[in-house]
């Protein structure tokens, strides 16, 4: 108004300086520097007979006192009291109380002038002027009902008393909406902002879903309930109350002077209390990261409340986060562990919907949902063995209500809208959680981007239930079980195959107590799958394995090698033909759904499948080694230079398994032991052709350490590519080149060594 000349004559052309305590002391390192700057400002304002404007009086009182007992307000005080300096300061009532507490003399030297809020009529006039300026600046037009809708939204969500400031912010956000979202008149002209644009701008600013804030969009209560029931498993009380909360917010029936809702979730660990808070945030805001979580065990000491609200020199953890994100779900985890002073702060938040931070600024909680969690009563809860579910549920609610009454003060509990009992998870609930977590993991970006489909058999869910649920910790281990037992085996294949994995389908099933992975394509040249090892519980996998076995044998049948062998009169082509016929007869006699067969038929199928596997195994070994020299010899060195206590044992294990393999195939081995090494002189048919595939590094994971054992030829340098890894949870052998996986640690390598070497031989033959 001074710049516009709309002030009394004595204020016209009067200069005005805007300062803050922080700006006055900024950059001042040495004693007396900021005091000199402050005196210079005072002198300049006095000489110009100007005005000094301060918008944070509390900051002025505390600035500069960190290294001395003097602050900026004390420097200004004598000049204010003498009338030489005119200071205009602003403060909210709460900030003024704090300022009086820290600097009463300075505050009392100022005359108080209460500033009333804008009347609705005046606020409307201010908004009209602002819209006219925005129309000119952005070449748009505002429909009158668009401004009305904006004010309605502010009234619904508690910002109407901040007019015109909140209204100005919202119409500015409307003006900045992308032009592609605005309606253009049929005859052309400026884009026109409608009521729907006010809703869109408010939804973007608040994070609320469009369906929640738009009065023209209907919300089906049954759909809301179904949405929560799908994601919160086994907790009907929680789904019921969260559904009701969404409906209350949609209908604008919440108390505008309190948080949108407040809940005390009580129950044992790992039953879904935190997950329910995350799910609520996902429904309201479309993002689970709108949950602001506080672990109250970190605020359990005297004085911890100051961390939440801050002080004159710093912001509080709670007030800062709510000021930055006023529309949020506030989760106070294990609230019973907080200090008593923290409960006093929560009383104010729950009852009045606001809190004053250490700098005197008021933070509103009327846009937040407050969720408190507690394990009180979970340890002493007796199993309620009642047949009537309604009676059992009532007894459970009564148990937790009494536990809460025994711990929390009555005035605290009275400010919480709902106490929500969470039940221990039964098998149905655990199965639902396992399925949901697995589906969520398999829908991640890495699968979607590559167009990969992953199908899991029911026994995978059973395995996750066994390893992902603990009676003490509930379903908390489930995420770890999904990652270790499902995602790790899948990630190995995705990383190794690169672009070749795009559009592929993987099937997951349980074999040897672990999740096994079957690829719809398989690797070129991979051996035929062994049918007997699959079992008969998975019809789809059985059918896929039959197809892959047939394709593998046909690939050999059509190869140049087999054509050469036919011409030479070798018996191997006839053996391949017989194996194909046996495979066809197996399918004709038993079909592709072995799970439906009676026990005697499954036993017969197992015998026939084992015979087909044995024939296929013999054919593949013979074809891969058809050109290998007889009486072959090779010298290998197994060594490890690790200082790990288990290093020598690992060397002995690997060397012993190689010896057992050679002797089982009729070869001979001379073993010589050295310091951390084992020398093997090996003789036997095709031994060099086979065992050269063992040359390289074997990486063994033992707890948190990695031990590397090298197998090398005599005279060759140590090292080489990693051909196999062992260890992990569960213990697994993994051959990257052939994508062959087997259960067990290194000590179990002897059993699958034949399969691992055959897979490498088949891959090498296909490459030729």
Describe the structure.
The protein has 768 residues and is α/β, with parallel strands linked by helices. It is 48% helix and 16% strand. The protein contains 29 helices and 25 strands. The strands form seven sheets. An eight-stranded mixed sheet has the order 19-20-18-22-21-23-24-25. A five-stranded parallel sheet has the order 7-10-13-6-14, with helices on both faces. Helix 2 (33-48) packs parallel to helix 4 and helix 19 (427-442) crosses helix 21. The protein is elongated and about 120 Å long. The mean pLDDT is 86.
Brief characterization of the structure:
The chain has 768 residues and is α/β, with parallel strands linked by helices.
Question: What brief labels describe this structure?
Answer:
768 residues, alpha/beta, Rossmann fold, Helicase, Ruva Protein, domain 3, 6 domains, eight-stranded mixed beta sheet, five-stranded parallel beta sheet, 29 helices, 16% strand
């Amino acid at each position: 108004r001074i710049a516009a000349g709309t002030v009394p004559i004595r204020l016209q052309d009067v200069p005005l300086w805007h300062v803050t305590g922080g700006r006055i002391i900024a950059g001042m390192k040495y004693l007396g520097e900021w005091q000199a700057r402050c005196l210079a400002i005072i002198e300049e304002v006095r000489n110009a007979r100007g005005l000094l404007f301060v918008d944070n009086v509390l900051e002025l009182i505390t600035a500069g006192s960190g290294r001395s007992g003097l602050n900026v307000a004390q420097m200004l005080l004598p000049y204010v009291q003498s009338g030489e300096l005119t200071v205009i300061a602003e403060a909210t009532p709460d900030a003024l109380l704090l300022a009086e507490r820290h600097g009463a003399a300075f505050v009392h030297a100022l005359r108080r002038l209460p500033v009333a809020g804008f009347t609705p009529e005046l606020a409307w006039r201010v908004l009209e002027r602002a819209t006219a300026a925005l129309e000119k600046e952005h070449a748009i037009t505002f429909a009158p009902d668009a401004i009305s809708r904006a004010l309605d939204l502010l009234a619904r969500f508690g910002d109407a008393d901040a007019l015109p400031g909140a209204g100005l912010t919202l119409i500015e956000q409307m003006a900045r909406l992308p032009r592609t979202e605005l309606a253009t008149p049929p005859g052309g002209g400026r884009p026109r902002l409608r009521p729907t644009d006010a809703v869109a701008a408010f939804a973007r600013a608040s994070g609320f879903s469009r369906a929640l804030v738009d009065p023209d969009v209907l919300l089906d209560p049954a759909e809301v309930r179904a949405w929560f029931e799908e994601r919160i498993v086994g907790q009907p009380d929680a789904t019921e109350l969260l559904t009701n909360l969404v409906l209350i917010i949609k209908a604008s029936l919440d108390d505008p002077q309190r948080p949108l809702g407040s809940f005390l979730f009580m129950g044992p660990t790992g039953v879904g209390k935190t997950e329910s808070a995350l799910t609520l945030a996902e429904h309201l805001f479309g993002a689970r990261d709108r949950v602001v979580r506080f672990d109250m065990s970190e605020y359990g000491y005297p004085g911890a409340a100051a961390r939440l609200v801050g002080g004159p020199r710093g912001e509080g953890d709670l007030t800062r986060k709510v000021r930055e994100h006023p529309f949020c779900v506030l989760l106070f985890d294990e609230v019973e562990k907080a200090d008593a002073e923290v409960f006093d702060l929560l009383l104010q938040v729950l009852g009045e919907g606001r809190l004053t931070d250490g700098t005197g600024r008021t933070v509103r909680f009327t846009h937040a949902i407050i969720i408190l969690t507690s394990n009180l009563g979970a340890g002493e809860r007796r199993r309620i063995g009642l047949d009537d579910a309604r009676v059992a549920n009532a007894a459970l609610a009564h148990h937790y209500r009494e536990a809460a009454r025994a711990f929390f003060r009555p005035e605290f509990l009275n400010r919480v809208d709902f106490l929500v009992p969470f039940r221990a998870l039964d098998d149905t609930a655990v199965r639902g959680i396992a399925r949901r977590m697995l589906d969520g993991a398999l829908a991640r970006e890495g699968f979607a981007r590559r167009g990969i489909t992953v199908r899991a058999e029911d026994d995978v869910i059973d395995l996750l239930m066994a390893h992902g649920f603990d009676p003490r910790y509930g379903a908390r281990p489930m995420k770890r079980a999904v990652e270790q037992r499902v995602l790790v085996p899948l990630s190995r294949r995705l990383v190794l195959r690169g672009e070749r994995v795009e559009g592929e389908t993987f099937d997951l099933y349980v074999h040897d107590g672990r999740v096994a992975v079957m690829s719809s394509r398989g690797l070129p040249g991979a051996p035929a799958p062994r049918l007997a090892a699959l079992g008969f519980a998975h019809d789809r996998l059985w059918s896929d394995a039959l197809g892959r076995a047939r394709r593998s044998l046909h690939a050999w049948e059509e190869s140049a090698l087999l054509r050469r062998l036919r011409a030479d009169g070798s018996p191997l082509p006839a053996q391949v033909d017989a194996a194909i016929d046996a495979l066809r007869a197996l399918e004709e006699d038993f079909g592709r759904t072995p799970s439906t067969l009676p026990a005697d038929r499954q036993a017969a199928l197992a015998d026939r499948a084992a015979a087909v596997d044995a024939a296929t195994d013999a054919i593949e070994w013979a074809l891969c080694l058809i050109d290998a020299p007889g009486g072959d010899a090779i010298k290998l060195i197994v060594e490890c230079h690790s200082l790990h206590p288990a290093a020598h044992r690992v060397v002995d294990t690997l060397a012993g398994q190689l010896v057992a393999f050679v002797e089982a195939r009729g070869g001979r081995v001379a073993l010589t032991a050295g310091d951390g090494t084992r020398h093997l002189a090996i003789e036997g048919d095709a031994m060099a052709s086979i065992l050269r595939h063992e040359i390289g590094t074997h990486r063994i994971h033992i707890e948190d350490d990695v031990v590397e054992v090298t197998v090398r030829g005599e005279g060759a340098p140590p090292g080489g590519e990693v051909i196999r890894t062992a260890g992990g949870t569960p213990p697994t052998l993994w051959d990257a080149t052939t994508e062959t996986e087997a259960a067990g640690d290194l000590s179990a390598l002897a059993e699958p060594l034949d399969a691992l070497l055959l897979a490498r031989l088949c891959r090498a033959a296909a490459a030729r």
